């Protein structure tokens, strides 16, 4: 794969992710000032993953017919338009704010599914021997975008408010779309096998489903804090313009961790890394409240939780798609087929969108009955439960226990042999 092709996809990840996170620190309060109920804000944040989820299922099956390059460029344009639309909320009343917010997030969801699914499909098909390293690089750029979004948003918010922040990001995306398509150029012809590729049949394979739920956990945690963390941070008397900088702690550690994980050998057992990532996510949610039963309500503890969220998310995401590809080939007997890569890329987008969809809605519901520390503690318990499920379901526990079992069997054999000698 050429340098320009890779660069076009990496930059796409950067600008698309920046477009999403630029609204996270400031939209909740802006919507609240226009009379939008908090639960509606949660729905607004959920619309992106809902429509990305629906689009990814269709796209994963028909990407080879629609064309990867066409979907790639179209997706970037749609995300750009979505940001321009949401910039208009500063001029409207409650009803128009809700309308533009809904329309913007619907287009953003469809656009993100098109651009990211096609991008990952191209990367995994063109770099079959080094998928994990390629995914790690892509996520490092996505992480940079997640960092840039809140930081750029904070700067533009201070200079010109929400309208300027969202409008400029949208224009940049629309300008980049044709340039990205030009740099991408022509992709290689599809490699097809005799296998019947059905995205639903692949998704419900147990090992692939386990990895998909791990991916969902990442975006669930980010979706949970998106509409709620700003208000939680402001309770510590932090000035609003610093909220974006605090958000960037998570994204900076995520980007750096993804880059460092690109050096992990391809043959390393990916399940170990993913299991450790789940544990870190659970630990992070004990800190972000902080847990009222274990920790004092200190601001530095909340900030430290964002570090663990970033590292844990990277440890899950980087090996997850390569592990699904390995499972599809080795456990379920699929041959080399670019449609399989399309399907698994679609499943990845679906899983991330599912988690992101559930996160804001769960936050809105839980925070109606519990405070933030209690809610985050409950999320930590849920993630730890899945940590145990993954440890068992992925057969990692069997692998870890095998040496001890062999040693125990050997010791038992020696005891029996000694007993026979004594007799």
TrEMBL record:
Keywords recorded for this protein, A-Z: Membrane, Transmembrane, Transmembrane helix, Transport
A GO MF term: transmembrane transporter activity
GO CC annotation terms, alphabetical: membrane
Domain of life, per lineage: Eukaryota
Protein topology in the membrane: Multi-pass membrane protein
Pfam families associated with the record: MFS_1
Transmembrane residue ranges: 7-27, 39-64, 71-91, 97-123, 135-156, 162-185, 206-225, 245-264, 276-295, 301-322, 343-366, 378-398
Predominant cellular place of this UniProt entry's protein: membrane
Name recorded for this polypeptide: Major facilitator superfamily (MFS) profile domain-containing protein
The species this protein was found in: Blepharisma stoltei
């Amino acid at each position: 794969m050429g340098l320009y092709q890779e660069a076009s996809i990496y930059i796409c990840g950067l600008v698309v992710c920046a477009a999403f996170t630029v609204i996270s620190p400031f939209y909740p309060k802006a919507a609240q000032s226009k009379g939008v109920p908090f639960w509606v804000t949660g729905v607004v944040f959920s619309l992106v993953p809902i429509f990305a989820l629906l689009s990814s299922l269709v796209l994963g099956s028909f990407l080879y017919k629609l064309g990867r390059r066409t979907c790639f460029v179209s997706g970037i344009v749609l995300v750009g338009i979505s940001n321009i639309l949401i910039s208009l909320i500063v001029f409207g009343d409650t009803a128009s704010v809700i309308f533009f917010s809904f329309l913007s997030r619907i287009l953003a969801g469809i656009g993100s599914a098109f651009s990211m699914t096609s991008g990952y499909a191209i990367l995994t098909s063109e770099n079959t021997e080094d998928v994990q390293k390629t995914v790690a690089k892509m996520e490092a750029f996505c992480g940079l975008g997640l960092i840039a979004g809140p930081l750029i948003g904070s700067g533009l918010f201070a200079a010109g408010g929400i309208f300027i922040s969202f409008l400029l990001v949208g224009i940049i995306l629309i300008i980049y779309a044709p340039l990205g398509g030009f740099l991408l150029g022509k992709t290689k012809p599809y490699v097809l096998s005799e296998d019947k590729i059905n995205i639903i049949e692949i998704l419900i394979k147990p090992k692939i489903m386990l990895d998909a739920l791990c991916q969902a956990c990442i975006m669930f945690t980010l979706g949970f804090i998106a509409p709620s963390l700003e208000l939680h941070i402001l309770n510590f008397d932090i000035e609003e313009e610093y909220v974006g900088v605090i958000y960037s702690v998570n994204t900076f550690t995520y980007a750096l961790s993804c880059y460092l994980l690109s050096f992990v050998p391809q043959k390393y057992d990916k399940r170990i890394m993913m299991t450790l990532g789940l544990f870190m996510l659970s630990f992070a949610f004990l800190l972000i409240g902080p847990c009222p039963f274990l920790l004092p309500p200190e601001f530095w503890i909340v900030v430290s939780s964002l570090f663990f969220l970033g590292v844990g998310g990277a440890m899950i995401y980087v090996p997850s798609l390569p592990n699904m590809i390995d499972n599809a080939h080795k456990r379920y007997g699929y041959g080399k087929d670019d449609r399989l890569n399309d399907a698994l890329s679609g499943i990845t987008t679906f899983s991330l969108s599912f988690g992101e969809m559930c996160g804001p809605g769960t936050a809105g519901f839980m925070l109606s009955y519990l405070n933030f520390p209690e809610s985050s503690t409950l999320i930590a318990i849920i993630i730890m439960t899945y940590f145990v499920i993954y440890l068992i379901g992925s057969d990692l526990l069997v692998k870890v226990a095998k040496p001890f079992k062999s040693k125990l069997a050997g010791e038992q054999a020696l005891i029996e042999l000694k007993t026979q000698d004594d007799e």
